[in-house]
Amino acid sequence: MTPTTEKLPISVLILAGGRGSRMGGRDKGLVELNNQPFVEHALKIVRPFSDDIIISCNRNQAQYRNFSDTLVTDKNDDFPGPLAGIQAGLQHAKHAAMLVLPCDTPMIPTDLPQQLYQSFRNNPDAISLVNDGERLQPLHAIIPTQYRQSLNQFLEGDRRGVIRWYKQHPVKEVVYQGQAEFFTNINRLEELEAINQQLTC
User: Fold this and answer.
1) Euclidean distance between the first and final Cα of the chain, in Å?
2) Which residue has the higher pLDDT, 159 or 74?
3) Secondary-structure class of domain 11-200 per CATH
4) CA angle, 33 as apex, 73 and 60 as ends, to 5°?
5) Quick one: which of 10, 16, 3 has its CA closest to 145?
6) Where are the chain's structural domains?
7) pLDDT, tens only, 2-12
8) Full-model pTM
9) What is the DSSP string of 83-136?
10) How would you list the strands of the sheet with 70-72, edge to edge?
């Protein structure tokens, strides 16, 4: 599918709030690939589609302010995982659905917002997430914002696990058969260097 530039009635949350422990503690959203920070690679995909872009970040807020006016942080400061970022994003989302993307998969397909939004339109009570043909990609998903309170209650119960929470609701898979490489997340500096070399060859 060739993406259009039509704004969709969705909010977007980019997750950039992790420890980056496998990157030597670096803030992954600000790590550069091909001379652009990871967060900017995600923004290039979603900017044409949404008027409500939220970045989940737990440090370096002054730098992230250059990318979005809406920043959120986790309720506590121990980096409890992506569900905490999703929880914070849902509290600020303006639309009936929120597209979630991690900052560290800079090669995602450009039609991803459209594909997930179409799934939401067809299944408005479901959480739609990507299946890359090999595995589920739970952090590439669109979540109905009506599930704010459900996630609050889940986390108040001291529970974690993205899929575990998703399964409390209808789930719809959006399949990208044979495209697993586009959802590769870059966790280590050596992986970053290898992809940088590919891009410059």
Assistant:
1) 27
2) 74
3) alpha beta
4) 25
5) 10
6) 11-200
7) 445 679 999 99
8) 0.89
9) HHHHHHHHHH--SSEEEEEETT-TT--TTHHHHHHHHHHH-TTSEEEEE-SSSE
10) 70-72, 53-56, 11-15, 97-102, 136-144, 127-131, 171-175
